[in-house]
């Protein structure tokens, strides 16, 4: 009886190890909001939406939205630095339209506060939002 | 089956002969130089049009008239007529200018407090809706500039409008 239980445990353990080993590459950073501001007022913000949501942090967030006038993006990091930009560009609005809940989002702005670029990345390496 | 191997080459050859006769017969017909489905332009006085004046639905004079009309309809600067980010914006109405003034006042008040609150958002909403697209863009850039420079601190993650 004990031999059967031991064999079953061994099989289960092996299955778990194999499952873990072939689960795929994973993003290993913390995914937090990173804000870069240049001397001329331009800058960029980037972060991983799923990672940010799942993180124990309390302040940071990253968001983009589109409406009938264009897009509006904003980000805040754990140091309470809040940045924002907007644009009437239909091209950037298309980029925002591809955003999913667990994507990596990067947006850039110029010295006037106008959004100049948006990058949306979907990857199996990124965490999904939990809970 | 193998004995009928000559059938396919023979049939192909016969079809080719028939096609050749048909094409050769059409060679004597008047030919159109226009793209299929498009009208053929006739140049009065040329030998080809003199031979078949009824083949063309559009004359050179008509073509000239259409070109003149199209050129007259173009903006003087050569800018696109409509659509795209380069489209000429209509000047804002007095109501839109009033809304823009009031929206700037809301922003100015928030800047003096260095804080953007729910009350500011509510005060801005009707003005924001009334402003023109260009005025909204301008206002949002002023807002963004103030936030990015730390002169204005939004109290939540909600957009300002």
> Which CATH class of the domain at 34-121 in chain A is shown?
Mainly Beta
Strand content of chain A: 25-35%
Share of helical residues of chain A: 25-40%
What structural category do the secondary elements of chain B indicate?
Answer: mainly alpha
Oligomer: heterodimer
Q: Strand-and-helix sequence of chain B, N→C?
A: HEHEHHEHHE
Going across the major beta sheet of chain B, what is the strand order?
Answer: 1-2
CATH fold-level assignment of the domain at 34-121 in chain A: OB fold (Dihydrolipoamide Acetyltransferase, E2P)
Q: Uncertain regions of chain B: pLDDT < 50 for 5+ in a row? A: 27-53, 77-84
Anisotropy-based shape of chain B: elongated
Query: What is the CA-based Rg of chain B, rounded?
Result: 35 Å
Mean pLDDT of chain A: 88
- Rg of chain A, Cα atoms, Å: 21 Å
Question: How would you characterize the overall build of this protein?
Answer:
The complex is a heterodimer of chains A (131) and B (161). The radius of gyration of chain A is 21 Å and the shape is elongated. Chain A contains 3 helices and 7 strands; from the N terminus they run H-E-E-H-E-E-E-H-E-E. In chain A, the strands form 2 sheets. Chain A has a 4-stranded antiparallel beta sheet. In chain A, strands 3-4-5 form a 3-stranded antiparallel beta sheet. Chain A is 26% helix and 33% strand. With 131 residues, chain A is an alpha+beta fold. Among the domains of chain B are: 41-70, no CATH class; 94-154. The longest helix of chain B is centred in the first third of the chain and has 20 residues, at 7-26. Chain B is elongated, with a radius of gyration of 35 Å. The chains are: A alpha+beta (131), B mainly alpha (161). Chain A binds chain B through residues 37, 41, 43, 61, 63, 65, 69-70, 72, 74, 76, 82-90, 109, 112-114, and chain B through 85, 133, 136-137, 140-145, 147-149, 153-154, 157, 159, 161.
């Amino acid at each position: 009886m004990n031999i059967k239980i031991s064999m079953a445990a061994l099989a289960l353990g092996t299955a778990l190890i194999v499952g873990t080993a072939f689960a795929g590459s994973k993003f290993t950073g913390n995914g937090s909001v990173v804000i870069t501001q240049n001397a001329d007022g331009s800058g960029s913000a980037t972060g991983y939406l799923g990672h940010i949501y799942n993180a124990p942090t309390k302040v940071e967030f990253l968001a983009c939205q589109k409406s009938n006038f264009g897009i509006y993006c904003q980000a805040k990091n754990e140091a309470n630095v809040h940045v924002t930009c907007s644009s009437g560009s239909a091209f950037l609005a298309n980029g925002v339209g591809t955003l999913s809940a667990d994507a990596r989002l990067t947006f850039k702005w110029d010295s006037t506060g106008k959004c100049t670029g948006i990058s949306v990345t979907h990857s199996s390496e990124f965490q999904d939002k939990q809970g | 089956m193998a004995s009928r191997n000559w059938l396919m080459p023979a049939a192909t050859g016969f079809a080719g002969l028939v096609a050749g006769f048909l094409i050769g017969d059409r060679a004597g017909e008047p030919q159109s130089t226009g793209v299929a489905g498009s009208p053929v332009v006739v140049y009065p006085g040329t030998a080809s049009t003199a031979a078949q004046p009824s083949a063309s639905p559009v004359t050179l004079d008509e073509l000239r008239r259409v070109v003149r009309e199209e050129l007259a309809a173009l903006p003087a600067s050569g800018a696109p007529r409509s659509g795209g980010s380069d489209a000429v914006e209509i000047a804002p109405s007095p109501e839109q200018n009033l809304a823009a003034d009031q929206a700037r006042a809301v922003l100015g008040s928030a800047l003096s407090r260095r804080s953007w609150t729910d009350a500011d958002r509510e005060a801005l909403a009707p003005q924001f809706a009334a402003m023109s697209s260009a005025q909204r863009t301008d206002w949002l850039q002023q807002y963004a500039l103030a936030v990015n420079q730390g002169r204005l601190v939004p109290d939540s993650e909600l957009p300002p409008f």
